[in-house]
Specification:
two-stranded antiparallel ribbon, 2 strands
């Protein structure tokens, strides 16, 4: 007859709790490493973004990494931007919306990804997406700042490699704000930096959670179960 331990219920199995704690610590570590990467990116961004006034071309490893990154980002955002225009080529849209839809898609793309993760309860991933909304808005600010160059965007500056209409020259001219291009571009860039900074601050609080708050919350749940 197998032996039974009458005091088995008094021995607490900590293996599951230890495993859960280990997974939690691994996730926190991953968040902290990711946070460091984004903080460094935000600090270096004004020096290596090709459209920033402080940009200086050099042969450093950091410059090469940023150049590669901006190339990939430009291609990705360019495809999304042109897809927004493409929707209006397929479906009838007012001309103003056709011009604006590229930028709308460019901002909605990371924004909707962020909303998806927010709904899933993954706030850290949502904050990363918010950071990239700000990053995408940096491109918008740069594009805005070139509106004065004319209505026709020459082929060598166009993403598709053909002459095209400059979205913001058309839109700002249509609403009579072309003369304020620099101011609007500056405000857009400022908002973009605020979004990127807000995302990094949010990531910091996610990477360094308030442990006391969690303990109180867990204790409240235990008390609730006892009732």
């Amino acid at each position: 007859m197998p032996e039974t331990n009458p005091f088995k219920h008094l021995h607490k199995d900590n293996s599951k709790e230890e495993k859960s704690e280990s997974v939690l610590q691994s996730r926190i570590l991953a968040k902290r490493v990711t946070l460091v990467i984004f903080v460094l990116f935000l600090l270096l961004f004004p020096h290596y973004a090709p459209w920033e006034p402080s940009y200086r071309q050099n042969d450093s490893l950091t410059q090469q990494i940023f150049t590669l990154y901006f190339f990939v980002a430009n291609q990705t955002l360019g495809i999304v931007h042109e897809s927004g225009h493409g929707v209006c080529y397929i479906f009838p849209c007012p001309e103003f919306l056709t011009m604006a839809n590229g930028t709308i898609f460019q901002l909605l793309f990371p924004g909707l990804i962020g909303y998806y993760y927010y709904r899933k309860g993954n706030l850290f991933a949502a904050l990363i997406a918010l950071f990239f909304v700000g990053f995408s808005l940096q491109y918008t600010a740069w594009y805005l700042s070139t509106a004065h160059e004319g209505l026709i965007l020459p082929a060598h500056k166009s993403f598709l490699g053909v002459d095209a209409i400059h979205d913001f020259n058309y839109m700002l001219s249509a609403v009579g704000l072309l003369a304020y291009e620099s101011l609007i571009a500056g405000l857009t860039r400022f908002i973009a930096y605020l979004m990127m900074l807000a995302a990094v601050i949010g990531m910091f609080f996610e990477a360094f959670p308030n442990k006391n708050k969690k303990i109180v919350k867990r204790g409240w749940r235990r008390e609730k179960k006892d009732f």
